[in-house]
Design a protein that fits this description.
Peptidase_S1_PA_chymotrypsin, Peptidase_S1_PA, Thrombin, subunit H, serine-type endopeptidase activity, 7 strands, mainly beta, Peptidase S1 domain-containing protein, seven-stranded antiparallel sheet, about 90 residues
Length: about 90
């Protein structure tokens, strides 16, 4: 279960009828799991139209800022870089 993380995302959808404006911000949470290279795999709809993504490990209160590396909407997969702030459990860059 240490490979499972909670993904917190702030979204802001574009307004396609008025492209110079954006719609209201909203937040969501989902789950993801750690894969090779300190990366996290989650669903694409979890990080769609993201403005900020944070990750939280099981049993921890600390949220780590993540960088979205790729979003595959066709297969509903999103890949985030893992923890930007290291702990002893994960190797630091």
């Amino acid at each position: 279960m240490d490979a499972v993380v909670k993904v917190f995302c702030v979204h802001m959808e574009p307004n396609f009828s008025l492209p110079w404006q954006r719609k209201r911000q909203y937040s969501s949470s989902s789950s993801g799991f750690v894969i090779e290279g300190r990366r996290v795999l989650t669903n694409a709809h979890s990080v769609e139209y993201y403005t900020q993504v944070k990750l939280k490990k099981r049993g921890s209160d600390t949220k780590y800022l993540a960088i979205v590396l790729a979003i595959g909407t066709e297969c509903d997969i999103g890949k985030n870089s893992s923890f930007s702030c290291c702990t002893s459990k994960y190797s630091c860059r």
